[in-house]
């Protein structure tokens, strides 16, 4: 914990409390309210945790006003341009960029854990063909807790290490097999001679009937999407993983909980919802109608891929994603892709509209990612599984950080109770 010399005075009624203030290495100070209830007999109230720091962390820093995202201090745009996903995984997990030897060892360990226990194929076959791949991922990742007993003792650092490597390594296989099952094609096994992104593309798009050669441009775009989604501070799904893990639950089960939370359209599910929205808008001339609907309080419609709890300026990931979308579609010769044209015009119009400007609503990570994934050949149902695959390293890194913290306690928020006060039971004949 940082500096303990500063304090905040909180006065209410006859009570006045001096609360410690901690200063971070970056970002706002925090007022330590851990003793507030014991000393003051009151709770704080913060539904949605808009003003609450749930933990201290050294992994990812976001400055929503500056549109800044740092992983262990390195800006996301530099990592997206100069690094690659498994190197970012190493950075998130261990705190420093690896040496060439460390990177080779890490990549070798991940590569050699990409296969699933053969019996796990039965879980895929237990789902209906039209099951959403996120439903399958929640189920199969949760089922890993029944298969890998040699990496579930969370008090053992080596178990934590093995569980981390297994999850990072196996998520592409699980996501790819969920896709293959949904389209009635045979599952394709991972190959150890392919890099992480190429392996995933091949498992998704190869068929036994013919050779499949990964397009290096696709692989680079895929890897960049993985990197841009890797971690994002204490977002809803990461907070879910932390809360689940705070009870000492099985690491695979905790990641399954994170996948379930990410699925929601307000969170990771927005990439699928955004592309479906862009397709529904269809053409540039339809945009004004949807802009008006997004502004109408009586209409539940929102611009998917727009807005963010933290970024009140641009989302730095959206900027990189937009560049990548331009590159991929140009290389594919579809730079006039109607969905991309609608997205660009929608962004331009929205960012000139006072409603969006005043509410600081900008494109987020989900606004352009679906356009790239669509161009790579993925159906919209696979967009969120790809987000989950990418974010697994973030969940795992935050999980490891919390479990290794000797101060870790089970998460147990309180409430503002607005229900009935005590009353006695009334027999049914007297009601
Ligand atoms: C992700 O937390 C993370 O870091 C998440 C994430 C990560 O990497 O983990 O970045 C990934 O989840 C990105 C967000 C993806 N979701 C979407 O694109 C769905 C559309 N966006 C909205 O649902 C919304 O913007 C949220 C959920 C993202 C943020 O909501 P907040 O911060 O709780 O803001 P809010 O709902 O209180 O909205 C503030 C105002 C409201 O108007 P008023 O009630 O003040 O009049 O802005 C409006 C909202 O109605 N608003 C929108 C809008 N988003 C907010 N209006 C139209 N379209 C939108 N998209």
Care to describe what's here?
The protein is built from 18 helices and six strands. It is mainly alpha-helical and 431 residues long. The strands form two sheets. It has a three-stranded antiparallel sheet. The chain has a three-stranded antiparallel sheet with strand order 4-5-6. S-citryldethia Coenzyme A binds at residues 232, 235-236, 266-268, 270, 294, 302-310, 359, 361, 364-366.
Structural class: mainly alpha
Low-confidence stretches: none
Strand content: 5-15%
Overall 3D form: globular
Order of helices and strands: EEEHEEEHHHHHHHHHHHHHHHHH
Number of helices: 18
Widest β-sheet, arrangement of strands: 1-2-3
Please provide the count of β strands: 6
Bound molecules: s-citryldethia Coenzyme A
Helical residues, percent: 40-55%
Q: Roughly what is the average pLDDT, rounded to an integer?
A: 94
Main β-sheet description: 3 strands, antiparallel
Rg result: 23 Å
State the end-to-end distance. 56 Å
Main features:
binds s-citryldethia Coenzyme A; 431 residues; three-stranded antiparallel beta sheet
Topology:
Elements lengths: L5 E7 L2 E8 L7 E2 L4 H5 L19 E4 L4 E4 L2 E2 H7 L2 H10 L5 H12 L9 H5 L7 H11 L13 H26 L13 H10 L10 H13 L7 H10 L5 H12 L7 H12 L5 H9 L20 H16 L6 H13 L3 H5 L6 H12 L6 H21 L28
Antiparallel strand pairs: 1-2, 2-3, 4-5, 5-6
